[in-house]
Amino acid sequence: MLEISIRKAINRLTNKLASNVNFTRSECEALLNMFVKFDGKKPFGKLDRMTFREILHHTFKMTDDVMIDRIFRVFDNDFDGGVNAQEWVMGLSVFLRGTLEEKTKFAFDVYDLNTDGRITREEMFQLLKYSLIKPTDEDPDEGIRELVEIAFKRLDMDHDGRLNLTDFRQAVENNALLLEILGQCFPNEEVTTAFLSTFQEIKVPESISYIKPAKSFMSSTTA
Q1: What pTM does this model have?
Q2: For 128-185, what is each residue's pLDDT tens digit?
Q3: Exposure pattern of 136-154 as b/e (b: 16+ CB <10 Å)?
Q4: Hey, how many other C-beta atoms are within 10 angstroms of the C-beta on 109?
C-alpha cells in the first residue's frame, strides 16, 4: 500500500509540474523518484541543507560550499529551510535546462545575498573572496576590491551605481561569459550531460538548450 501511495503522489505532482518545467513527463517522474531516494521519507519530505550540499558535491561535482548554500537558498522558494519535491524539480529545470533568461534570473538570485533585489559591491566582495582566493594567499583584499570594481563596471549597464536584475540581464545578453562572473551557479556541460543521460528521454528542445561557457569571464580576467 505504501508503494502505491508513493506512485500516486508522484503521478499527481508530475501532472502538476510537467507543463511548467523544461523536462518531459517521464523525466519529471524520474526526478521525483530520485527525490524520494535522497529524502528517505514517504511519500515526500524535504531535503535539508546538508543533504542538498552532498547531492551537489557528489552528483554535480560542485565544491564551493558558499555557492552551494546560495543555490540551496534559491531552490528553497518558500524559504522554509528545506527543498520539497516540487522545488526540487522546478529548481533542476533551470539548473540543468534553463533558458539563458531563466539562468540569468537564477544566478542573480544566487548573488543577491540579502535578497533585496540588488547586488552591492560588498556582496561581490564576499562572493569573490570565497570563490577565487586560496587560504594561503596573503592580504588578498586589495586584489579582490579591484576585481569587484572591474565586475561592477561590466554589469552596471546604466551606470547609476546600483546593480539590479535589469542591469545583470542586459550584461549577460551582451556577453554570456558574465553569467557566472561571481562564482559557479551551474554544473558544467559534461556533468549535466552525464546526469541527464540517466533518463530515458534526454532530448532538449532547441528553444530551452543553453551550453554553459567552458571558461568563465572572471577566470579569463584573472589569468
Answers
A1: 0.84
A2: 987 765 555 566 788 899 999 999 999 999 999 889 999 999 999 999 999 999 999 9
A3: eeeebeeebeebbeebbeb
A4: 17
How far is it, in rounded angstroms, from Cα 199 to Cα 194?
10
Are 87 and 79 within 8 A, CB to CB? no
pLDDT digits (tens, 9 = 90+) for 85-113: 999 999 999 999 999 999 999 999 999 99
- As a residue count, the chain comes to 223
Domains, in order of start, for the chain: 1-97 (1.10.238.10), 99-185 (1.10.238.10)
Cis geometry, peptide bond prior to residue 135 (ω within 30 degrees of 0)? no
Q: How many CA atoms lie within 13 A of 70 on its CB side?
A: 26
Selection from 11, 8, 23, 9 nearest residue 199 by Cα = 23
